[in-house]
Design goal:
Length: 399
């Protein structure tokens, strides 16, 4: 303890003696990051202080950097990335990837938001009830809730509840679906119309399929597909509970669907992804993903997206639209995939119809994307208080 106290005093003295933050040596970093076994785990207090000092320097680099040391901005940034990875428990690859996506101050807001669970949200099933009636029924049962926001007519956000929200009589009767706010967005963007033919390529657990069904008022036909037969059980269960009668459930590899069926008015592709937008839900993403995982996802997404386009009917009088979305924030799984589809098929991007969210990237590092990528939308936990999400909408121009 005495040794630790002396080290801490040394560090504080170091900071007090000079207004300039002195970059620690490799040995000092190692001592606080990987202390000997006899001592405590990484000293997060020291790492946090070092991060704060480093951020102050980077905010005013010319005046605050260590004088006469010849240290570059990159050296300070590398230490900051290393400290952030240690403090928030990310692997180096993912921290490096995220730091390329956001300015420094926003990066820390994103990391902080990932430490907090997103609010519990539910979607009113308008096939069976109205939002006002549902809200009143749940309030009577001891649920504290509010409308989700001006952008949704069916969403409710739940602050706390004296009853389990997934087991109320209203839930069992199919009056609502437990559904993240971000997963309402792709269906709103797709805007399915009555009497259309719609394909949901990766449908499990059925939240988006059932939302589409209620917007179509149970008319037309929805094909709800998923490659995982086990997960289809939840789709069937939810569709029954919610009173959806216009849906067919099937079990194909999405990449083979165009050979089995096509001619759809609208297609929804919520593609399998790395999950970098849902870290608060699945913290294992912080350490389990590497570059191979991201590229593997991107390769599969490209195959699925081209198939989704091939399933569409460009001659549809009401549709010919496709929504591609992921719960990832990486450019490799979003803009890169969309840009690839624009080059490979006769499609164009159209506005999503969502009046909030950040514009997609049209340029990222050395990459240049089609200018229409500004029509895509990105959603983040730190700005929109929902899971990280990407939404794009295509119009097919010819078969």
């Amino acid at each position: 303890r005495k040794l630790l106290q002396e080290e801490d005093d040394d560090l504080q003295t170091n900071i007090v003696e000079s207004e300039h933050f002195v970059l620690p040596s490799g040995q000092e970093i190692e001592k606080h990051t990987h202390p000997p076994l006899a001592r405590k785990p990484p000293d997060l207090q020291i790492i946090h202080q070092r991060m704060q000092d480093n951020l102050a320097v980077l905010g005013d680099f010319t005046n605050r950097r260590e004088p006469g040391s010849g240290r570059t901005r990159e050296e300070y940034l590398e230490l900051l990335k290393r400290d952030l990875a240690m403090y928030y428990s990310y692997n180096d690859f993912l921290m490096s990837l995220l730091s390329g996506l956001f300015p420094l101050s926003e990066l820390i807001e994103f990391l902080e938001a990932n430490e907090v669970h997103r609010p519990v949200t539910i979607r009113t099933n308008t096939l069976k009830t109205r939002r006002r009636e549902l809200a009143q029924a749940l309030i009577n049962r001891g649920v504290n809730l509010d409308p989700l926001g001006k952008w949704s007519k069916v969403g409710l956000v739940i602050f706390d509840s004296s009853v389990p929200v997934g087991a109320t009589p209203e839930y069992l009767a199919g009056h609502y679906m437990l559904q993240g706010a971000s997963s309402l967005l792709p269906v709103m963007a797709l805007a399915p119309q009555e009497n259309e033919k719609l394909l949901d390529m990766c449908a499990a657990p059925g939240g988006k399929t059932s939302y589409a069904a209620q917007l179509m008022r149970n008319t037309g036909a929805i094909v709800a597909n998923d490659v995982n037969s086990e997960r289809l059980k939840s789709v069937v269960g939810n569709l029954h509970r919610l009173g959806v009668t216009n849906s067919i459930v099937c079990n194909y590899d999405g990449r083979a669907l165009a050979k089995v069926m096509s001619g759809f008015d609208r297609v929804l592709l919520d593609a399998p992804c790395s999950g970098t937008g849902i870290i608060s839900k699945d913290p294992s993403v912080k350490t389990s993903k590497d570059e191979k995982d991201i590229l593997r996802c991107a390769h599969l997404q490209k195959q699925l997206l081209l198939t989704a386009i091939d399933c569409l009917d460009a001659a549809s009088t009401t549709g010919g639209f496709l929504v591609y979305c992921t719960c990832s924030v990486t450019v490799e799984e979003n803009e890169w995939v969309v840009d690839y589809a624009l080059r490979k098929r006769n499609v164009k991007l159209v506005p999503t119809g969502l009046d909030f969210g950040k514009e997609g990237f049209t340029r990222f590092k050395e990459r240049r994307f089609h200018p229409s990528l500004k029509l895509t939308r990105r959603f983040y936990p730190h700005t929109h208080n929902m899971d990280g999400f990407f939404v794009s909408k295509f119009k097919k121009l010819s078969n």
